[in-house]
Amino acid sequence: MQRDDLDAVIIATPWNWHASMAVWSMKCGKYVGVEVPAALTLFECWELVDTCEQTGIPCMMLENWSFRRDNLAVLNMIRAGLLGEIVHCHCAHSHDCIDHWFFDPQGNARWGAEFLVKHDRSQYPTHALGPVLSWMDINCGDAFATLTATSTGSLGINAYFARKFGPTILTPNRFSSRVTSSPAP
């Protein structure tokens, strides 16, 4: 980071390193591009904002979902006037990647599984929101006053593991553990 010929860094590491690496990079005077999610906690979000404001060094979250072919097609249709005036959008990120991103096909946890199991939340809220921002020209003179991201219980992942491996329960302490059930009395 002390090199004079290094102007910027791209952070594409496991999620728990994103915010701290971005803060350190800005403090070293380097422009930062950080993969999603840029932060995992509200504290980390404010640490990114505060460091950017204190150093004057830009930090950009590298949201890629907006640039998928289908999302760009909708953006082009909107800009061409094919859909009329867009006054409301509802968005969701429905991307089943349990058996190749969070877990391998045998059910063994990969590094991302920790976040799926320990935190019942929308892991990528910007994947859903990113395209909508472009479609509605939000942050082009218009901005959100509030934002809410919602996640449901872990029913789908538990059902998937039950179908594939037998009755399973996911807990923060063990990614998957076999459970046997006895008949109700």
The coarse overall form would be globular
Number of strands: 5
Uncertain regions spanning at least 5 consecutive residues: 171-185
What is the string of helix and strand elements? Answer: EHEHEHHHHHEE
Class derived from helix and strand content = alpha/beta
Main beta sheet: 3 strands, parallel
Cα-based radius of gyration, to the nearest Å: 20 Å
Q: Whole-number average pLDDT?
A: 82
Oligomeric composition of the shown chains? single chain
Strand order of the largest sheet: 1-2-3
Strand residues, percent: 5-15%
State the end-to-end distance.
64 Å
Short summary of the structure?
The chain is α/β, with parallel strands linked by helices and 185 residues long.
Walk me through the topology.
Blueprint: E1 8-11, H1 18-27, E2 31-35, H2 42-55, E3 59-62, H3 69-79, H4 98-102, H5 113-118, H6 125-135, H7 155-165, E4 168-169, E5 177-178
Give a structural overview.
- The protein is α/β, with parallel strands linked by helices and 185 residues long.
- 37% of the residues lie in helices and 9% in strands.
- The protein has seven helices and five strands.
- It has helices at 18-27, 42-55, 69-79, 98-102, 113-118, 125-135, 155-165; strands at 8-11, 31-35, 59-62, 168-169, 177-178.
- The strands form two sheets. A three-stranded parallel sheet has the order 1-2-3, with helices on one face.
- Strand 2 (31-35), helix 2 and strand 3 form a beta-alpha-beta unit.
- The chain is globular and about 55 Å long.
